[in-house]
């Protein structure tokens, strides 16, 4: 293969990728009323394909949850976008992410906000995310290995909290870690009936809750379970 042919091939692949990214935004995300320009621009300029496991790279822009190790998945692009829009991240926000996973949602949060503390129980997720974030020059992230399924009190309070795996019930400790005016997104319930919630702390002892959409999503490891029924 000549140099000119190689260059043409690389250019063709780049054009194909950018077309797929454009279609993801225009055909999946924008029609679902994700219209926040900061969110759309961040998604458009953060290379999702670089965070997808290599064997699923061809699905990077598809409307599917992409499998990750340990029974976890990378959220569909639309779910990521809707949660991100609901959080309304501001440039100075201090953010807590529970479940680093692929590191892609971490990257989106970091590019929108001030600093992200991202916690995951799986050390290989942390190592992989650190490598990918570093490769893209995203340095305003602290990656921590830990079990945060029942709460995380370090570094709070936070302006925004993103819980990226589902929880059968939401521990009160998460709400307590929000600053007044802070927002949290969480997926609550048990398969197959779950809903994504936006919770806003509107006062020292007052929170508002909004249902965003229904879904079904893998639970965080060691998540608190509801009390068993006894007859």
Q: Looking at the structure, what is the overall shape?
A: globular
Poorly predicted ranges: none
Please name the fourth-level CATH homologous superfamily: Vaccinia Virus protein VP39
**Count of distinct structural domains:** 1
* CATH domain class: Alpha Beta
Q: Report how far the terminal alpha carbons are from each other.
A: 73 Å
- Average predicted confidence as pLDDT: 93
What does this protein look like?
It is a single chain. The chain has 231 residues and is of the alpha/beta class. It has one domain: 3-Layer(aba) Sandwich (Rossmann fold). The chain is built from 6 helices and 9 strands. It has helices at 3-29, 37-45, 77-87, 104-112, 123-135, 172-176, and strands spanning 66-67, 73-74, 94-98, 115-120, 141-145, 158-167, 178-190, 193-203, 206-215. The strands form 2 sheets. A 7-stranded mixed β-sheet has the order 5-4-3-6-7-8-9.
Gist?
By secondary structure, this protein is of the alpha/beta class. The protein has 6 helices and 9 strands. The strands form 2 sheets. It has a 7-stranded mixed β-sheet. Strands 1-2 form a two-stranded antiparallel sheet.
């Amino acid at each position: 293969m000549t140099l000119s042919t190689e260059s043409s091939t690389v250019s063709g692949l780049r054009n194909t990728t950018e077309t797929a990214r454009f279609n993801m935004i225009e055909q999946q995300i924008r029609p679902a009323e994700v219209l926040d320009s900061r969110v759309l621009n961040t998604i458009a300029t953060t290379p999702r394909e670089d965070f997808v496991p290599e064997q699923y790279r061809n699905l990077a822009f598809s409307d599917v949850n992409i499998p990750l190790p340990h029974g976890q998945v990378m959220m569909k692009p639309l779910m990521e976008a809707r949660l991100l829009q609901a959080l309304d991240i501001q440039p100075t926000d201090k953010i807590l992410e529970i479940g680093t996973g692929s590191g892609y949602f971490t990257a989106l949060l970091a590019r929108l906000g001030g600093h992200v503390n991202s916690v995951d129980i799986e050390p290989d997720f942390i190592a992989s995310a650190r490598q990918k974030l570093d490769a893209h020059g995203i340095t305003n992230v602290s990656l921590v290995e830990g079990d945060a399924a029942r709460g995380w009190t370090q570094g709070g309070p936070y302006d925004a909290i993103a819980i990226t795996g589902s929880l059968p019930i939401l521990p009160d400790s998460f709400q307590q870690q929000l600053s007044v005016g802070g927002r949290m997104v969480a997926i609550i319930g048990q398969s197959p009936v779950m809903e994504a919630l936006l919770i806003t702390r509107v006062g020292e002892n007052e929170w508002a809750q909004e249902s965003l959409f229904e879904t079904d999503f893998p639970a965080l490891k060691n998540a608190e379970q509801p009390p068993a029924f006894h007859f």
